[in-house]
Amino acid sequence: MSAIHIANRVTRIKPSPSSTASDRANALKRAGKAIVNLVVGEPDFDTPAVIRQAASAAIERGETRYTQNNGTPALRTAIAEKFLRENRLTVNADDVIVTNGAKSAIFNAFAATLETGDEVLIPAPYWVSYPDMVLACDGRPVIVTCSEQDGFKLTPESLRAAITSRCRWLLINSPSNPSGASYTRAELRALADVLLDYPHLAIMTDDIYEHIRYDDAPNVHLLEVEPRLADRTLIVNGVSKTYAMTGWRIGYATGPKTLIAAMGTLQSQSTSNASSVSQAAALAALNSGTEFITTSLEIYRQRRDDIAARLNAIPGLSCRVPEGAFYLYVNCGGLLGKTTAAGQRLTTDNEVVLWLLDSAGVAVVAGAAYGLSPYFRLSIATDLPALQHGAELIAAAVASLK
Ligand code: PMP
What we know:
By secondary structure, the protein is an alpha/beta fold. It has 2 domains: 8-46 and 291-399, Aspartate Aminotransferase, domain 1 (Alpha-Beta Complex), CATH 3.90.1150.10; 64-286, Aspartate Aminotransferase, domain 2. Helix content is 40%, strand content 14%. The chain has helices at residues 8-11, 17-30, 49-60, 73-87, 101-113, 129-136, 156-162, 185-196, 222-225, 257-268, 276-286, 291-312, 349-360, 384-399; strands at residues 36-37, 96-99, 119-124, 140-145, 167-173, 202-206, 233-238, 251-254, 318-319, 327-331, 362-363, 365-366, 375-379. It has a 7-stranded mixed beta sheet with strand order 2-8-7-6-5-3-4, with helices on both faces. Strands 9-10-13-12 form a 4-stranded antiparallel beta sheet. Helix 8 links the parallel strand 5 (167-173) and strand 6 (202-206). The radius of gyration is 21 Å and the shape is globular. It starts with 7 loop residues before the first helix and ends with a helix. 48% of the residues are buried. 4'-deoxy-4'-aminopyridoxal-5'-phosphate (PMP) binds at residues 41, 101-103, 127, 173, 177, 206, 208, 238, 240, 246, 251. Its cofactor is pyridoxal 5'-phosphate. GO terms for molecular function: pyridoxal phosphate binding; transaminase activity. Keywords: Aminotransferase, Pyridoxal phosphate, Transferase. Pfam families: Aminotran_1_2.
C-alpha cells in the first residue's frame, strides 16, 4: 500500500490533450523525425518590446514583492478602463481580480461556486479544460452540442432545452477555441432572451480571443446587449492571446462583488497574487494601443485564408473559415472508412490524427478532445511556410488513402 493517495478530484480528470499531442509530436521530433507541429495554442510572436521593457523597468524599480492579492490598483484601474474603452462596459476597479492566467480565474470561479453535482452547460466543441475544471470542482459538465450547420454556435432552442434546475453556469467562449465561432449581436440577443427566463443561471464569458476576430462587425459583449444579466455574469479575459503573453500568466475577471470576493479568498489561500513583474507588463500591454493587435491579426488572417483554401481543396476534408481565434476546425468525416497504405481502416478522428502524425509527420489534435467528432483542430499560430508545408503533407497523405 502506498502512502500517497491520489484524490478522486484528480483521478477523474486527465491532462490537457493538446499537451499530450504536443508531447507525442516532440518525442517523435527528438527521435529524429521531421514533424510539423500544428498543435500549439499560443501566438508564435514575441511579446512586444514595450511590454518587455516595462517588465524590466518594474524589476529595476524593485516591484518584486507581493502585491495586493487581487492585483495592483494600477492594473485593476487599467482593466476597468479597458472594459469601458473596448467593451463599452462600466466596471469598478474594486470589482476586478487579476489572476494567474485566465485559466485560474475560471478554475477559481468554479471552485468558489459549485457544490457536488451542480451542472455547468458547456457548448461543444469546447476548450478542453472546461469539463475537467468542472469535474475537479465536483460539478457535472453538461455538454450541449453545437453543430457545424449552426456555425458551431449555441442556438436559443438548444440552450433552453439544456437548462435544468441544477444548472449553475453557462459558459460562452466567443470567439471559440477550437472552432473560431464568434457570436453576432443578434445571436447574443436571442440567447439573452432565453437567459432572462432562467434567473438561477449564471453566465461565464471567456473572452480571451476577443481581439482575434476577422469580421468587420464591432466586437460585442453579452452584457452590452443585455445589461440586466450583469448581476449574474462573470467576464473572464487576459493578456495571453491578445499580446502574445502566454508565459507571463496574467488573466483577469470581473463580476458580482460576492463572487469576486470569494475568488479572491481562494486565491489568497492558494497562489496569492499573480506575479508582480507580469502585472507591470500587463499594465503596459493594456496601455500599448492597437498596433500589435492589428499587425498580428493581419498575419493570422493571411494564414487563415491561405490554409483554409488549401484544406478545402483536399477531397475528404472541409473546414469552415472561422470568424476568430487562430485555429481551423477541420471536418475529416470524408476520410472515415478509408484504408491507409499500411492497411489500417480509419474509423475515428483520433485514428486520423495518429495516422497523420505517423505517416505525414503533421501534429494536430483530434476533435474528440473538444467534444465534437469527426474533426481535428489545426493551429495557424505558426509561420505561413510551415503551415503550407503541413497542408501539402496532409494532402499527399490523404491522396494515398484507398
Ligand atoms: N480560455 C481559452 C478558450 C483558451 O484557449 C485558453 C488558453 N489556451 C485560456 C482560456 C487560458 O488562457 P491563460 O493563458 O490566460 O490562462
